[in-house]
Amino acid sequence: MLLSTPLKGRWKLLNKIGQGGFGEIFCVYDLETQQKAAVKMERIDRNKRALRLEIAVLRKIQESRFSTKFIYCGRNQVYNYLVMELLGTNLSTLRKKQPQQRFSLATTLKLGVQMISAIEDVHEVGYLHRDVKASNFALRIPRNMKPKNGYSPGYCCIIDFGLARKYITSEGQLRPPRDEVGFRGTARYASINSHEGTELSRRDDLWSLFYLFIEFLEGSLPWERLKEKEEIAKVKKQYTNVGMCKDLPEEFTTFYKHIESLEYADKPNYKYLRRLLTDIYLRYGFDENTKYDWEKIKENTHPNKSNPKNQKMSFDSTAALTGTTNDLSRSKKKSLIGGFSKEFQKEELEKINEMFFPKKNNEKLKNNQKTNPNQKNIKIEETNKNKNGPPVDLIDPESEINEFEKMMKMINGENKSDTSSSLNIDDDRGCCIIL
Ligand SMILES: Nc1ncnc2c1ncn2[C@@H]1O[C@H](COP(=O)(O)OP(=O)(O)OP(=O)(O)O)[C@@H](O)[C@H]1O
């Protein structure tokens, strides 16, 4: 690819980092900030345009910690383009680099908690994502490869709002479902509602997430090899929670039952779903030192290898690319937490929450301790009591942390997060790209 002029005289194209149905994504060098960024380009002559919608949603979701930072949008003779924060590897690529193409339970849970939050944040601004899949989540690149100022090495962001749809009206009311809708999304992860042409709602993004969890843990989905949507739908219908969750911790069954209980209009209980994953995490004895699969400690060369307590978590981007795994086994069944005092459990839970949500307000976390995280049977009973609606919220309201403002300043200097819905696409016709 030849580039005669940097985009808008500012962004110099370096290399292609992604290709999707809607456009191409490039890594660019920002001559102004001297930092790398990502640019998504969509040809102006495309019949179906998705970038305008994507930009609108991205700008609305800027306050979410799980969103990539909007930088600029513009147009030249050939392309509409969106400049945004450069993220790291997407989760699909990362998974495929693991042995057996699986993530460990710990990694799945850590990512899962963040993915639920990311989806919740999209829903909060009034949109459904409608294409939840691993390649639409990417890791935020940690500065200096260390958790810093609210970043953690595994912080994952949701991307690609090209298929998003507003599910509430401008008055904040739920849009009435249409009688029939065309298929949207990616067949492998689409909910059965989507296959059946039913109007999608918040629950359907969570169905896709559930399928993703299975894929993360098992390395594939039962309908992996099928190509036709109709065949995929047929197999999907055969696999209920019994088929898919039988070898998994029982919270996955509870997860499944919750989304299964949701009607079109129901708001999913995101906190409850996050809590289910955190419960497993604690029960299996994972803690804040538990590494992601792509992190590694160079044990042979580590100066403190004889004392595991001295070993600090480190992000190794090479490991992320080469697929190095951690030392956790999926079959690890011991429950360390169960043997400790309540105080210890509280401390543990705080730490875990800090890890999932860096810089979380500790006072808020303390409120979350009212339920013993190990009393999963109680929660299951509570869920069953509320069959006609979302289960009771067993966790105290979890306020959103306003760390994002700080993070934005840190990443983007003075870039403002304009959340207005009106799009102000800059006409940049002077800029010429030759492919
Ligand atoms: N901001 C970003 N930083 C780094 N990589 C990115 C960024 N945005 C997208 N990518 C990479 O490009 C890939 C494709 O991006 P995206 O999903 O937005 O394109 P798309 O055309 O909508 O794709 P699809 O048709 O698969 O939905 C992503 O999976 C990711 O690997």
Give a topology summary:
Elements: E1 2-3, E2 11-19, E3 24-30, E4 35-43, H1 51-60, E5 70-75, E6 79-85, E7 87-90, H2 91-96, H3 105-124, E8 127-128, E9 137-140, E10 156-158, E11 165-166, H4 192-195, H5 202-218, H6 229-238, H7 241-245, H8 251-261, H9 270-283, H10 317-322, H11 342-356, H12 362-367, H13 376-385, H14 404-412, E12 426-427, E13 433-434
Parallel strand pairs: 5-12
Antiparallel strand pairs: 1-13, 2-3, 3-4, 4-6, 5-6, 7-9, 8-11, 9-10
The protein binds adenosine-5'-triphosphate.
Residues 17-18, 20-23, 25, 38, 40, 68, 84-87, 90, 131, 135-136, 138, 159-160, 162 line the site of adenosine-5'-triphosphate.
Pfam families: Pkinase
Biased composition (Low complexity): 368-377
Organism: Anaeramoeba flamelloides
How would you summarize what this structure contains?
This protein has helices at 51-60, 91-96, 105-124, 192-195, 202-218, 229-238, 241-245, 251-261, 270-283, 317-322, 342-356, 362-367, 376-385, 404-412, and strands at residues 2-3, 11-19, 24-30, 35-43, 70-75, 79-85, 87-90, 127-128, 137-140, 156-158, 165-166, 426-427, 433-434. It is α+β, with helices and mostly antiparallel strands.
Structure characterization notes:
It is a single chain. Mean pLDDT is about 75; it is low at about 145-150, about 295-345 and about 360-435. It is built from 14 helices and 13 strands. With about 425 residues, it is α+β, with helices and mostly antiparallel strands. α5 runs antiparallel to α8. The protein folds into three domains: about 10-85, 2-Layer Sandwich (Phosphorylase Kinase, domain 1), CATH 3.30.200; about 85-290 and about 355-435, Orthogonal Bundle (Transferase(Phosphotransferase), domain 1), CATH 1.10.510; about 295-355, no CATH class. A hairpin with a 4-residue loop joins β2 and β3. The structure holds adenosine-5'-triphosphate (ATP). Adenosine-5'-triphosphate binds near residues 90 and 159. This is Tau-tubulin kinase 1. InterPro entries: CK1_Ser-Thr_kinase, Kinase-like_dom_sf, Prot_kinase_dom, Protein_kinase_ATP_BS, TTBK_Asator-like_STKc. GO terms for molecular function: kinase activity. Pfam families: Pkinase (PF00069).
